[in-house]
Design brief:
Layout (H helix, E strand, L loop, with lengths): L3 H8 L2 H6 L1 H20 L9 H11 L3 H8 L15 H16 L1 H7 L3 H32 L9 H28 L4 H11 L2 H14 L4 H23 L1 E8 L2 E3 L2 E3 L2 E8 L6 H19 L7 H9 L5 H22 L2 H10 L11 H14 L1
Antiparallel strand pairs: 1-4, 2-3
Helix pairs in contact: 3-9, 3-10, 6-7, 6-8, 6-13, 7-8, 8-9, 8-13, 9-10, 13-14, 13-15, 16-17
Length: 375
């Protein structure tokens, strides 16, 4: 008997792919858009000294800037026009999603269908501009505080930097929307993915070069490969892990026929919030961490300099805030995206119930209890 893979391969008609003009156009459009994005990560900001910035970045590359440099596809390392990347848009989307659950007017707007979704998307764009403005201004101030990074510091440099970085983020947001509409897949996800993948060849070649020179033994390189595979496997395992709640449906009569009761499962993901909590926490900590990493100026009050330094990557206060925010947003975001009361009402509406728990409020309390435990 043929396996599922063999059956799938036998059913594929590659000649149909060759004739699919619309699909080919979408593929080429996606490739072209991603090439434009990659090109923008190499165009530096006006008014900065690339060599001085590279030296300053090397001392901070293992911190928060290194993490955001990965998400930005290397644009932070080169302080390019796309240095902010798409992160302000992601943060604004998360904030808007949270607000739709706590503000009645936005919640009502969400239920209006396509028209309401368009209005919420427009609010998300406004939020993206606001977040990008704040982060871009913080970066401009931090760059001016660096030793010799900015050739002509002042208000003009700050304005030009803010306009350039905000414009880069808005262009990436527009580009992602165009990929979604005219290309393949989700544009925002593809932009983030291409940025992360862009650093893999350099990392792999660097590891192999260390092995060639003897800095890393062959056994250690193999251990790194095995560890990477294990980490990926664990991520997939936890991402797919579920807690299934048994759902039963009573017997029902339709006309003269009696149908037996059915059973089903309500799957609750082990990681309902996904990667949203660390992304959101990192975005909120980006501004003070960036200023703390670059600012060497004495214009700030002593207490402000102390706080900024304490919020530097790897500092105890930073780690405390980061961990606390991840825990908070994990529970908060889970409560937003999964409403036990709505789920219990839907089960009750379709005559389903969890054995041992009365339909309605008792069922909602039990689902909330289980969801909180696994979160």
């Amino acid at each position: 008997m043929a396996s599922a893979a063999e059956q799938l391969a036998s059913n594929l008609n590659f000649s149909a792919f060759a004739k699919a003009e619309d699909l080919k156009k979408r593929i080429w459009f996606t490739i072209g858009a991603l090439l434009v994005y990659r090109l923008g990560t190499y165009i530096p900001l006006p008014g900065i000294n690339p060599d001085a910035f590279a030296q300053a970045f090397s001392s901070q590359s293992k911190g928060v800037l290194g993490m955001f440099n990965m998400f930005a596809g290397g644009a932070v390392q080169r302080m390019a026009i796309f240095a902010l990347g798409i992160m302000p848009y992601i943060s604004a989307s998360i904030i808007m999603q949270l607000m739709t659950s706590v503000i009645p007017s936005l919640e009502a707007l969400k239920k209006e269908g396509e028209q309401g979704r368009k209005v919420i998307n427009q609010y998300t764009r406004y939020g993206t501009v606001l977040l990008a403005l704040v982060q871009a201004y913080g970066i401009s101030v931090g760059l001016e505080g660096g030793n010799g990074i900015v050739s002509d510091p002042g208000m003009f440099f700050r304005i030009s930097t803010v306009v350039t970085l905000v414009g880069g983020t808005m262009f990436l947001m527009w580009l992602g929307e165009q990929i979604t509409a005219r290309g393949i897949g989700n544009g925002i996800s593809l932009i983030i993915f291409s940025g992360i993948v862009a650093g893999l060849p350099h990392a792999i070649s660097g590891t192999l070069e260390l092995g060639r020179t003897g800095a890393l033994s062959t056994g250690l390189i193999l251990a790194i490969i095995v560890l990477a595979i294990v980490v990926i496997a664990l991520i997939v395992f936890f991402e797919r892990a579920q807690r299934r709640l048994l759902i039963q449906y009573p017997k029902r009569q339709v006309g003269n026929r009696m149908f037996q009761g059915d059973t089903s499962h309500l799957p609750l993901k082990l990681n309902t919030s996904g990667v949203i909590p660390p992304i959101f926490a990192s975005s909120l900590l980006l501004l003070p961490a960036t200023v703390a990493g670059f600012s060497q100026t004495t214009n700030l009050p002593a207490w402000a300099s102390t706080v900024l330094a304490s919020l530097g990557h790897g500092q105890p206060l930073y780690m405390l805030f980061y961990a606390a925010m991840i825990v908070f947003f994990a529970f908060f975001y889970t409560a937003i995206v999964f409403n036990p009361k709505d789920t219990a009402d839907q089960l009750k509406k379709h005559s389903g119930f969890i054995p041992g728990y009365r339909p309605g409020e008792r069922t909602a309390d039990y689902i909330d209890y289980v969801l909180t435990r696994i979160t």
